[in-house]
Amino acid sequence: MSRLFDFAGGxxxxxxxxxxxxxxxxxxxxxxLVRKNLPKWPRLSEPEMVRHYTWLSxxxxxxxxxxxxxxxxxxxxxxxxNEVIAQMxxxxxxHPHQPEHHLQGLLSIFHExxxxxxxxxxxxxxxxxxxxGAQGEFTAVRCVQEFFRSRGEDQRTKVIVPDSAHxxxxxxxxxxxxxxxxxPSLEDGRIDIDALKAVVDxxxxxxxxxxxxxxxxFENDISQASEIIHSxxxxxxxxxxNFNAILGRTSPGLMGFDAxxxxxxxxxxxxxxxxxxxxxxxxVKSHLAEFLPGPIVKKRPISSGHEEFAVDDMWYGWYQPAxxxxxxxxxxxxxxxxxxxxxxxRRYGYGLxxxxxxxxxxxxxxxxxxxxxxxxxxxxxxxxxxxxxxxAKHEFxxxxxxxxxxxxxxxMDVAKGLLDKGYMAPTVYxxxxxxxxMMFEPTETESxxxxxxxxxxxxxxxxxxxxxxxxxxxxxPVRRVDEVYAARNLCLRHPFDE
Length: 498
Known about the structure:
Layout: H1 46-59, H2 80-86, H3 89-92, H4 104-121, E1 125-127, H5 133-150, E2 158-162, H6 168-175, E3 179-183, H7 193-199, E4 204-210, H8 222-231, E5 235-239, H9 252-255, E6 259-261, H10 264-267, E7 282-284, E8 296-299, E9 316-319, H11 335-348, H12 352-377, E10 384-385, E11 396-399, H13 401-407, H14 411-420, E12 427-428, E13 437-440, H15 448-462, H16 466-471, H17 483-488
Parallel strand pairs: 2-3, 2-4, 4-5, 5-6
Antiparallel strand pairs: 1-7, 6-7, 8-9, 10-11, 11-13, 12-13
C-alpha cells in the first residue's frame, strides 16, 4: 500500500526549485491570502514517487489489462500506431494561434476527417468542434433550434425520444429548453410506430433515435419514423453511440436523418474512459450546415501574401458558417483525438465495413455462448434475453430477473462477482425497459478464446450462492461500495489532519 502523504521527510528535501526572482520584501499580499502553515506536501525522492504512481496504475482497470464488455460504450483496443502519429512534432507541438500557413498539415487532416465522416454518415457537412458525445447531441439540438427560429417556427417546442434512449438524449434537449415527449417500445424492444403517430404535430422540432437501439436491435421501421416526423416538418437526429454496428453497411443519411453525432472515442478507437479525452463531432444535411459551430476547415482561394506556400488547390483555411450558433469548445475541438481517429480511418479504409461486421459477429457469438454454457450447467432458468430476436447487432441485453426472484441474486451481484474474475463488468440496469438488465458489448477486437473464457466464468459466477455474491468483490483493491452514499457524500480530497 502506498502512503504518499505520510512521507514527511526532511525540510527542503525531495524537490528542487530555482531561487525566487523577486525579493520577499517586494511581494505584498493581503493577510487573508497568506498561509498560516506550510502546505502539507509529501517530501519524496524520485524512486518513491515513481513507486507511488506505479502502485496507483496497478489498481486501475482498462482495456489494456482485461476484457471490457461495457455495453453501449464500445471499449475496444486502440492501435498504438495512432498514438505514434498523434505525437509527431508537426502535430503535437503546434499551437492553434499559429497562422494558417503554419498549420496546413493539420488543417488537411481536419478537412479529410470531416469528409470521411460525411461519407460514413451520409451527411453534407461536419464540424469537429464538440469534444464529447453529449456535447455533440446538445450542439445538434441547438442547430435545429436555430434553424426553426430562422424560419419563424417558434411553436416547435417538443422533442420526441423512445423510452429506450440514452439518458443524454432527453437531457440535451431539456438543456436547450425543449419539452420531452417519450414514446414506448413494442414488446420486441423497437419503436412503436402507432405511438409515434399519435404524438406528432407541428409543435415537434426533433426526434432523437439510436439505431441500433440500446437493446442492440436494429429499428426496422426507422425510414417510416423519419417520414412521419418529416411529414409535420420536424427533423430527425441520430445518436451515434452505436455507430460501430453499422459503419460501411448503411448510414443515418439513408435512414432519413438530418443530423448525427459521432463518438470518435468509441467507433474510431480514440482512447475512451476516465473522463476523456473525447470527441463528438456532428454532421448535418445541407439545410442545417450554416448553423454549425465553427470554425470548419474548407479549401478556399489562396490568402494574399501566402501564394508561395500553395500548391494547386491544396490551400486550407478556417471557415465560420454564416448563421453559426457560436463556439461550443475552446480552440478547434480535441485535435489529438481527431488525429488519432484520422489515423485509424486511414489505416483501415473500406475495411471499416469488416470492423462493424465483426462487432456484430462477436456480440452474437458471446450471446449464444452464454446460453450454451448455462444449459451445460443446468441454470438456463437464471436469465432471459432482454429482447425477443434471433440476431442482435453489436450489443445485447440479458435480464437477471429470474435469478433475483428465484435465488436472490441481482444483476449488481453478478457484476461485482465478475470483478473477482478479473473482468470489467457489463453495464447494469440500462436500458431501464429491461428489468435487472445487463448489457454486453464485446467489440470486434476480442478473440474467440476470450469470449469463450468469459462465457464460462460468467456462468461460474451465477452458480455461486447469493450470500457469497452479496459480499463480492473480495479480491479488488476496493471492496463493494455504497454507490448511493458515495454519490451523495462526495469526498474529493485527501483527508488531511487539520
